[in-house]
Amino acid sequence: MKAFVFNTIFILIVSSFVLHCGIALTPRLTAKFPLETKTEIFRLNLPYGENQNLYGLNVGIVNGVRNDLFGGQLGIANGAHNLIGIQIGAINLTHHKHAGLKIGLVNFGVPLHGLDPNHTHKSETGIGISIGVANFEIQSGNIAIGIFNYGAGIGIGIINRSFLSPLNSEDTGLNIGIVNISETHQKQFQIGIINYCPNNTIPIMIVANYCVKE
Length: 214
Prior knowledge:
The protein has a 15-stranded mixed beta sheet that branches. The protein is built from 1 helix and 15 strands; from the N terminus they run αβββββββββββββββ. With 214 residues, the chain is mainly β. InterPro entries: LA_2272-like. This is PPE family protein. It comes from Leptospira borgpetersenii serovar Javanica str. UI 09931.
């Protein structure tokens, strides 16, 4: 048994030096090999932890990755700048690129400066699925499934409100729900009981509607 434990520890140390990756437990109780590495393969955060890059698994109460996450996050609140993988938690957040799956109560896919009411920012791109009670996905190319969906891409829910920056106004969205509301500078297909397109000659339609650009 002692030999097994020793061999396991030795393999982890050698592997981490070779791969230049780290293993961390908590912000205060950490064990990183080698020291000062900015890339980790596993992190357990109790209660909170943040690292630069993670290629593997991020588990804890509050998990943060400043740059790239290739793998998964499991916790109450998860955040990553770029995500290729999966996030499962009450709150999930990505800032830039999202390719994967988010499952939570509230999912966000917004730039660092947030939801700009003046529509001055450029929407980021994503190829992913967000499943939650509420989804705020500014990234075009995303599929949002929930009770309330706000953003670009495809929205499937009870209430869908489309949002798209005028800088990406050539994109076309799709909303399927009971109430669908389009913003003014976006081409949009709507399927639902009440469909609202502010620029159309007849702005409110039943069953289906197609929103023209501003």
